[in-house]
Specification:
With 248 residues, the protein is of the alpha/beta class. It has helices at 57-64, 87-97, 113-123, 128-141, 157-169, 187-202, 214-217; strands spanning 13-24, 31-42, 46-50, 72-77, 80-81, 98-102, 175-179, 206-210, 222-227, 230-236. The strands form two sheets. The protein has a six-stranded mixed β-sheet, sandwiched between helices.
Length: 248
């Protein structure tokens, strides 16, 4: 019988990877998407992962977000060793500890935004009244209290991305993962969305984003550069953008 995941001391590190690897396919058709990735992320950090197309940055985000299993190395998320967990255990961690924001929003077009935001709470077994209350609270927090009965198709791209952020926040995640969150937005709207992330980070949220845009990357406190599946280097952002700008 499988035992519960072993916990390790926190030490303020919420993400700890050592020699992380991810290979797709087998034999001559195999592709090494990640190789020897060692990375620590502290609670309350905002990091951007940058790299050219095919560099492995989205794969790294998906492995760190427990969407894909690593094929080698060690990975500890919020004190839990996750590299050998079953799919159901990974699903439970995602529903309890993680929030996701994607480039394409991934909203249900035939449901109003309250139902969209409440979806992670459905999987977590939260009752209907509580789901509606929590979803409404986080939408109001993001300036969408006047849009609660609207469908995603009735909103602008920036509003839809705020709905996606609200959905990522509703389960009070330990980490928010964002994959090219401004990729489908114009520059002005993208700047507004990054202001929301900066505000959330200033409140203590841990955020890991993938972006190809240097301007958007500089809203983070640290930038990780990746190429050919390996971390090349990293830099600290001396004056992250969006601080003190109200998040909009």
């Amino acid at each position: 019988m499988r035992t519960s995941p072993r916990t390790v001391p926190d030490n303020d590190i919420i993400i700890e990877s050592r020699d992380l690897e991810k290979t797709y396919g087998r034999g001559d058709a195999s592709v090494e998407a990640l190789r020897d990735v060692t990375l620590d992320v502290r609670r309350g950090e905002f990091i951007s992962i940058m790299g050219p197309s095919g560099s492995g940055k989205s794969t790294l985000l998906h492995v760190l977000g427990c969407l894909h299993k690593p094929t080698g190395g060690r990975y500890v998320l919020d004190g839990i060793e996750v590299e050998d967990l079953t799919d159901s255990e990974l699903s439970e961690i995602r529903s309890r500890k993680l929030g996701f924001v994607f480039q394409k929003f991934n909203l249900l077009t035939n449901e109003d935004i309250v139902h969209n935001v409440a979806l992670p709470l459905v999987y977590a077994g939260v009752d209907l009244a509580t789901r509606s209350r929590l979803a409404t609270e986080v939408l109001e927090r993001l300036g969408l209290g006047h849009r609660l009965t609207h469908l995603p198709t009735e909103l602008s791209g920036g509003e839809d991305q705020r709905v996606a952020i609200a959905r990522a926040l509703v389960n009070r995640p330990a980490v928010i993962f964002a994959d090219e969150p401004t990729g489908n937005l114009d520059s002005e709207t993208g700047t507004q969305i990054m202001g929301v992330f900066a505000e959330l980070n200033a409140e203590g949220r841990t955020i890991v984003q993938v972006t190809h845009d240097r301007d958007m990357a500089e809203y983070a406190t640290r930038i990780i550069h990746i190429q050919d599946g390996r971390i090349l280097d990293e830099e600290t952002v001396a004056n992250p953008k969006g601080r003190g700008e109200g998040g909009s």
